[in-house]
Predict the 3D structure of the following.
Amino acid sequence: MKLAIVGLGLIGTAYAHHLSESGHTVLGLDASEAHFKKVLNDQAIKGPFDWTMSDIECVILATPVKATQSLLKTHAEALSQVPLVTDVTGLKAWIPSLLTTHPNLQASWISHHPMAGGSGRGPATAKTVDFTGKTVIAIHSKASAKAHELFAELMTDLKFDSPVFMTPDAHDAAITLNSHMPHVLAATLINQTSAHTREIAGPSMQTIERFAAMNPTLWAELFTLNTIQLNGAIEEWIKSLRDFQSHLSDQAALATYLKNLSATLHN
Protein backbone atom coordinates (compact mmCIF):
# COMPACT_ATOMS: atom_id res chain seq x y z
CA MET A 1 0.00 0.00 0.00
CA LYS A 2 1.02 3.64 -0.35
CA LEU A 3 1.29 5.12 3.11
CA ALA A 4 2.62 8.11 4.98
CA ILE A 5 4.38 8.32 8.33
CA VAL A 6 4.18 11.66 10.12
CA GLY A 7 6.90 11.86 12.74
CA LEU A 8 10.25 10.29 11.93
CA GLY A 9 11.54 9.64 15.42
CA LEU A 10 12.48 6.22 16.77
CA ILE A 11 9.14 4.45 16.21
CA GLY A 12 8.15 6.29 13.04
CA THR A 13 11.49 5.57 11.39
CA ALA A 14 11.49 1.96 12.59
CA TYR A 15 8.06 1.54 10.99
CA ALA A 16 9.38 3.14 7.80
CA HIS A 17 12.28 0.67 7.56
CA HIS A 18 10.14 -2.42 8.18
CA LEU A 19 7.25 -1.37 5.93
CA SER A 20 9.57 -0.38 3.07
CA GLU A 21 11.28 -3.75 3.35
CA SER A 22 7.82 -5.38 3.16
CA GLY A 23 7.19 -3.73 -0.21
CA HIS A 24 5.07 -0.74 0.79
CA THR A 25 5.60 2.70 -0.71
CA VAL A 26 6.39 4.86 2.31
CA LEU A 27 6.41 8.65 2.37
CA GLY A 28 7.48 10.71 5.36
CA LEU A 29 7.04 14.02 7.11
CA ASP A 30 8.88 15.45 10.10
CA ALA A 31 9.34 18.86 11.68
CA SER A 32 13.09 18.22 11.66
CA GLU A 33 14.70 18.54 8.24
CA ALA A 34 17.70 16.61 9.55
CA HIS A 35 15.49 13.68 10.57
CA PHE A 36 13.75 13.68 7.19
CA LYS A 37 17.03 13.72 5.23
CA LYS A 38 18.49 10.95 7.40
CA VAL A 39 15.50 8.64 6.80
CA LEU A 40 15.39 9.52 3.09
CA ASN A 41 19.13 8.85 2.68
CA ASP A 42 18.69 5.51 4.45
CA GLN A 43 16.02 4.67 1.83
CA ALA A 44 13.37 3.98 4.46
CA ILE A 45 11.06 6.45 2.69
CA LYS A 46 10.59 7.29 -0.99
CA GLY A 47 10.01 11.00 -0.49
CA PRO A 48 7.99 13.67 1.31
CA PHE A 49 4.33 13.39 2.27
CA ASP A 50 1.96 16.26 1.50
CA TRP A 51 -1.43 16.63 3.18
CA THR A 52 -3.05 17.34 -0.20
CA MET A 53 -2.16 13.92 -1.64
CA SER A 54 -5.27 11.96 -2.61
CA ASP A 55 -3.81 8.49 -3.24
CA ILE A 56 -2.60 7.68 0.29
CA GLU A 57 -4.15 4.52 1.78
CA CYS A 58 -2.82 4.92 5.31
CA VAL A 59 -1.45 7.71 7.49
CA ILE A 60 0.50 6.76 10.62
CA LEU A 61 0.87 9.55 13.17
CA ALA A 62 4.07 8.68 15.04
CA THR A 63 4.12 11.83 17.15
CA PRO A 64 3.64 12.58 20.89
CA VAL A 65 0.12 12.96 22.29
CA LYS A 66 -0.24 16.74 22.08
CA ALA A 67 1.29 16.88 18.60
CA THR A 68 -1.01 14.07 17.45
CA GLN A 69 -4.07 15.87 18.82
CA SER A 70 -3.02 19.05 16.99
CA LEU A 71 -2.46 17.21 13.70
CA LEU A 72 -5.83 15.50 13.92
CA LYS A 73 -7.62 18.78 14.57
CA THR A 74 -5.74 20.68 11.87
CA HIS A 75 -5.99 18.01 9.17
CA ALA A 76 -9.27 16.30 10.12
CA GLU A 77 -10.86 16.90 6.73
CA ALA A 78 -7.89 15.55 4.77
CA LEU A 79 -7.50 12.57 7.10
CA SER A 80 -11.19 11.67 6.81
CA GLN A 81 -10.54 10.89 3.13
CA VAL A 82 -7.80 8.35 3.97
CA PRO A 83 -8.96 4.71 4.32
CA LEU A 84 -6.84 4.13 7.46
CA VAL A 85 -5.52 6.63 9.99
CA THR A 86 -3.67 5.35 13.04
CA ASP A 87 -1.45 6.73 15.80
CA VAL A 88 1.13 5.29 18.18
CA THR A 89 0.57 7.51 21.22
CA GLY A 90 1.18 6.10 24.69
CA LEU A 91 -2.12 7.37 26.14
CA LYS A 92 -5.61 6.95 24.70
CA ALA A 93 -8.20 8.48 27.07
CA TRP A 94 -8.35 11.64 24.92
CA ILE A 95 -9.68 9.76 21.87
CA PRO A 96 -13.46 9.65 22.56
CA SER A 97 -13.77 13.43 23.00
CA LEU A 98 -11.80 14.14 19.86
CA LEU A 99 -13.92 11.74 17.82
CA THR A 100 -17.03 13.42 19.17
CA THR A 101 -15.67 16.72 17.87
CA HIS A 102 -14.57 15.20 14.54
CA PRO A 103 -17.00 12.34 13.80
CA ASN A 104 -15.84 12.24 10.18
CA LEU A 105 -12.66 10.52 11.40
CA GLN A 106 -14.47 7.54 12.95
CA ALA A 107 -14.65 5.45 9.77
CA SER A 108 -10.90 5.51 9.20
CA TRP A 109 -9.28 5.78 12.61
CA ILE A 110 -7.87 2.81 14.52
CA SER A 111 -5.52 3.88 17.29
CA HIS A 112 -2.76 1.54 18.44
CA HIS A 113 0.20 1.41 20.81
CA PRO A 114 3.29 -0.69 19.98
CA MET A 115 4.72 -2.21 23.15
CA ALA A 116 8.23 -2.04 21.75
CA GLY A 117 10.92 0.50 21.18
CA GLY A 118 14.03 1.20 23.18
CA SER A 119 16.04 3.87 24.94
CA GLY A 120 17.31 5.32 21.65
CA ARG A 121 16.01 8.61 20.28
CA GLY A 122 15.42 9.82 16.76
CA PRO A 123 16.03 7.88 13.54
CA ALA A 124 19.70 6.99 14.14
CA THR A 125 19.03 3.71 16.00
CA ALA A 126 15.59 2.98 14.55
CA LYS A 127 16.74 0.23 12.21
CA THR A 128 17.64 -1.94 15.22
CA VAL A 129 14.08 -1.87 16.60
CA ASP A 130 12.47 -5.28 16.05
CA PHE A 131 8.69 -5.68 16.39
CA THR A 132 8.67 -9.42 15.74
CA GLY A 133 6.26 -11.14 18.12
CA LYS A 134 5.89 -8.00 20.25
CA THR A 135 2.58 -6.97 21.79
CA VAL A 136 0.53 -4.27 20.11
CA ILE A 137 -2.57 -2.79 21.73
CA ALA A 138 -5.37 -1.55 19.47
CA ILE A 139 -8.29 0.58 20.58
CA HIS A 140 -11.87 -0.49 19.90
CA SER A 141 -13.31 1.74 17.21
CA LYS A 142 -16.16 2.23 14.75
CA ALA A 143 -13.79 2.09 11.79
CA SER A 144 -14.87 0.59 8.49
CA ALA A 145 -14.17 -2.97 7.37
CA LYS A 146 -11.64 -1.55 4.89
CA ALA A 147 -9.79 0.26 7.68
CA HIS A 148 -9.64 -2.93 9.75
CA GLU A 149 -8.38 -4.88 6.73
CA LEU A 150 -5.58 -2.38 6.12
CA PHE A 151 -4.75 -2.25 9.83
CA ALA A 152 -4.42 -6.05 9.99
CA GLU A 153 -2.11 -5.95 6.96
CA LEU A 154 -0.02 -3.24 8.62
CA MET A 155 0.38 -5.17 11.89
CA THR A 156 1.21 -8.38 10.02
CA ASP A 157 3.90 -6.73 7.93
CA LEU A 158 5.42 -5.14 11.03
CA LYS A 159 5.44 -8.71 12.45
CA PHE A 160 3.60 -7.86 15.66
CA ASP A 161 1.73 -10.52 17.58
CA SER A 162 -2.06 -10.42 17.12
CA PRO A 163 -3.40 -7.05 18.34
CA VAL A 164 -5.00 -6.90 21.78
CA PHE A 165 -8.11 -4.71 21.54
CA MET A 166 -8.98 -2.54 24.55
CA THR A 167 -11.01 0.54 25.44
CA PRO A 168 -9.07 3.81 25.86
CA ASP A 169 -9.54 3.81 29.67
CA ALA A 170 -8.53 0.16 30.03
CA HIS A 171 -5.45 0.83 27.93
CA ASP A 172 -4.35 3.77 30.07
CA ALA A 173 -4.94 1.86 33.31
CA ALA A 174 -2.79 -1.04 32.07
CA ILE A 175 -0.09 1.22 30.64
CA THR A 176 0.19 3.12 33.93
CA LEU A 177 1.31 -0.08 35.64
CA ASN A 178 3.30 -1.90 32.97
CA SER A 179 4.98 1.07 31.28
CA HIS A 180 4.77 4.34 33.19
CA MET A 181 5.45 2.96 36.67
CA PRO A 182 8.59 1.00 35.67
CA HIS A 183 10.00 4.25 34.29
CA VAL A 184 9.03 6.15 37.45
CA LEU A 185 10.61 3.49 39.68
CA ALA A 186 13.78 3.42 37.57
CA ALA A 187 14.12 7.20 37.65
CA THR A 188 13.68 7.41 41.42
CA LEU A 189 16.07 4.52 42.10
CA ILE A 190 18.77 5.93 39.81
CA ASN A 191 18.40 9.18 41.72
CA GLN A 192 19.56 7.31 44.84
CA THR A 193 22.67 5.83 43.23
CA SER A 194 26.13 7.23 42.58
CA ALA A 195 28.31 6.90 39.49
CA HIS A 196 30.49 4.41 41.40
CA THR A 197 27.48 2.28 42.29
CA ARG A 198 26.45 2.14 38.64
CA GLU A 199 29.99 1.25 37.51
CA ILE A 200 29.77 -2.06 39.38
CA ALA A 201 26.16 -2.73 38.39
CA GLY A 202 25.01 -6.15 37.29
CA PRO A 203 22.17 -7.01 34.89
CA SER A 204 19.41 -5.92 37.27
CA MET A 205 20.69 -2.34 37.60
CA GLN A 206 21.57 -2.24 33.91
CA THR A 207 17.92 -2.97 33.10
CA ILE A 208 16.87 -0.18 35.46
CA GLU A 209 19.37 2.18 33.81
CA ARG A 210 17.80 1.40 30.42
CA PHE A 211 14.37 2.40 31.75
CA ALA A 212 15.78 5.55 33.35
CA ALA A 213 17.43 6.64 30.09
CA MET A 214 14.07 7.88 28.81
CA ASN A 215 13.38 10.76 26.44
CA PRO A 216 12.71 13.51 29.02
CA THR A 217 10.44 15.63 26.82
CA LEU A 218 8.29 12.69 25.70
CA TRP A 219 7.99 11.11 29.14
CA ALA A 220 7.35 14.38 30.97
CA GLU A 221 4.38 14.91 28.65
CA LEU A 222 3.07 11.38 29.20
CA PHE A 223 3.45 11.58 32.98
CA THR A 224 1.69 14.96 33.30
CA LEU A 225 -1.15 13.89 31.00
CA ASN A 226 -1.58 10.76 33.10
CA THR A 227 -1.35 12.48 36.49
CA ILE A 228 -4.51 11.05 38.07
CA GLN A 229 -3.78 7.40 37.28
CA LEU A 230 -0.09 7.78 38.01
CA ASN A 231 -0.67 9.42 41.39
CA GLY A 232 -2.93 6.54 42.38
CA ALA A 233 -0.38 3.95 41.25
CA ILE A 234 2.42 5.72 43.16
CA GLU A 235 0.34 5.77 46.35
CA GLU A 236 -0.34 2.02 45.99
CA TRP A 237 3.35 1.38 45.40
CA ILE A 238 4.28 3.31 48.54
CA LYS A 239 1.86 1.08 50.48
CA SER A 240 3.48 -2.01 48.92
CA LEU A 241 6.92 -0.77 49.90
CA ARG A 242 5.76 -0.25 53.49
CA ASP A 243 4.27 -3.75 53.49
CA PHE A 244 7.55 -5.21 52.24
CA GLN A 245 9.48 -3.20 54.81
CA SER A 246 7.31 -4.57 57.61
CA HIS A 247 8.52 -8.12 56.80
CA LEU A 248 12.25 -7.35 56.88
CA SER A 249 12.68 -8.32 60.53
CA ASP A 250 10.99 -11.71 60.09
CA GLN A 251 12.76 -14.06 57.67
CA ALA A 252 9.97 -16.65 57.66
CA ALA A 253 7.30 -14.03 56.99
CA LEU A 254 9.44 -12.50 54.23
CA ALA A 255 9.97 -15.90 52.62
CA THR A 256 6.19 -16.44 52.59
CA TYR A 257 5.71 -12.97 51.10
CA LEU A 258 8.22 -13.71 48.31
CA LYS A 259 6.72 -17.16 47.71
CA ASN A 260 3.28 -15.62 47.26
CA LEU A 261 4.78 -13.06 44.90
CA SER A 262 6.35 -15.82 42.84
CA ALA A 263 3.02 -17.63 42.66
CA THR A 264 1.37 -14.42 41.43
CA LEU A 265 3.92 -14.12 38.63
CA HIS A 266 3.15 -17.65 37.42
CA ASN A 267 -0.65 -17.29 37.45
Q: What stands out?
A: Strands lie at 2-6, 25-29, 47-48, 58-61, 84-87, 112-114, 136-139, 164-166. The radius of gyration is 21 Å.
